[in-house]
Protein: Small ribosomal subunit protein uS13
Amino acid sequence: MGDPRSEAGALAPGMGRGVEAQDLRHTEGECPTMARLVGVDLPRDKRLEIALTYIFGIGRTRAQEILEATGISPDLRVHQLTDAELVPMRDFIEANYKIEGDLRREVQADIRRKIEIGCYQGIRHRKGLPVHGQRTQTNARTRKGKKKTVAGKKKPGKK
Structure:
C-alpha cells in the first residue's frame, strides 16, 4: 500500500515524487532538507544572504554582518550548508540580535505603551491612522480601510 494521497490523485502533476529523489542526491555533510535557524525554515535554493532575511528582524545588512562575523560565504546556497556552519551562525544570532517572537512582542509592547500614555503616536495608533507624518487628506487607504462615502449637499437646481 502506497501513499493514500497519491492513490486518491491528490498530488498535482510534477509534485511529490521529484522532491524525494532530488533530496537523496546530496553529498555527505550537506543539509538535505530545509535548514532551520531560530525556528524559521530557510528556503533551500536561495543564497544564504537572501535566505537569512526570511527571519523576522534580519534584513540584508544584518545578514551580511552575520555572514562576515561567522566567516561563511554569502554566495553559498542553503542546501550546501553543513551543520558545522549552522551552529556558529545560530549562536551569533542568538547572542547579538533580538529576533522573531521576542522582537514582535517588544514592538507590540511599545505600541501599547504609547497608546496608554496618550502621546501623539499612540493616538494615531488608536484611531488607526498613519503614525509617521504621512498625509491623510488623500491616500492612507491601507491604514484607514475602505472609503466610507459621505452624502454631499445638494445644489439648488435652475428654475
Notes: Helices lie at 4-7, 17-24, 48-51, 60-70, 83-96, 100-117, 120-127, 141-144. The beta strands are 35-37, 40-42.
